[in-house]
Known about the structure:
Chain B: GO terms for molecular function: lipopolysaccharide transmembrane transporter activity. The complex is a heterodimer of chains A (about 160) and B (about 220). By secondary structure, chain A is mainly beta.
Amino acid sequence: QTFSDSFAGFGSNNKEPIEIEAANLQVRDNDKSAIFSGNVVVIQGDTKLETQRLIVFYSGSMANGDADGQAVQQSISRLEAKGNVLISSKDQVATGDDASFDMDKQLVVMTGKQVVLSQGPNVVVGKRLVINLETGKADLDANEGGPNTGRVKILLQPNSVDKKN
Amino acid sequence: MTTMENMPKEFASEAQTRLEKARKSARRHSLLVRLLRYALPAGGTLIALAVVGMVIFQNVLSGLSIGDISLTTEGLVMSNPHLSGNDGDRSYNVQADRAIQRITNPQVIDLEKIVAEITVAPGETVSIISQNGTFDTEMETLELSNGIQLTYSKGYSAEFEYLDIDMKTGTIQTNDTVDVMSDGGYIDAGSMEFDQKNNVLNFRRGVKMKLLPWALENGQ
């Protein structure tokens, strides 16, 4: 199941500014995590993430610098979104219960009772969705474990497929 | 002389009086006990307070240097005072244009145009410039108001309407809008609370954050 590279917009190598809105933010510098909670919306370029709770794990430190105060380069290593997660990018929308973004491997793994991936009229439902942010390739499995059991429900509109890549 | 048949009556009345006496002395005794139970500790705390007060005043005095002093209706007005104190590796020093020590409550000092430097950890300082502030030397709290600019040595600066700083626990908090900026982006929030002990920073009541990845990347 390959899709256009619209999802690639969300990788951390993307240079567009990231805007995050939430009700609360707690920065726990000791364990290098920042927790956004309460209707979290993250927008970068035309990619959007919505969730109830987003935990951002960073290396380096939001607040530390080397001795003479230069802020050490901080990089976001992982994001954990928990609670009705929605990721949308251009015409693709993926919804599920939880999603984790591994920025180093550029992989998004979305899980949930019902993970729904839709692109325009086409809808695919499964349990586990893995999106490769670099290639934009999305693999949907029917069960949490792996691709072997369970059934993936696919709804494809005939005329829409040939238009896409 | 008591005779047999009225023995019980006399005996009874005598017993009566003895009982009465015992009860009265018991009451007197318990009064004494109660008195001691309250008077002694009260006296003790009073002495302790005096000692503690003296020590605090003493250590406040040692860290205090003042320009000229004048007594006005507002209180004892000190011009450009400089006050410093430390506790472990945390230290603070506070300067102001004017400091007015209230006559009614000498531990509280109102300050105008304050510049405060707080070393939160070795190599980590927070500098604060504020229009007004109230410094409680005993509680070691500093309440800043009317516009504050805070710069943090790790490359962050922040603006507040007012800010309450508890220098003993190192908590800095405000229930008013917060705007924290750095070259890597900014955070706006409805309120902020920084708990220095466990290094946890809480923004509440609506948070808006903007990150500039390229700035984050090259070390901002």
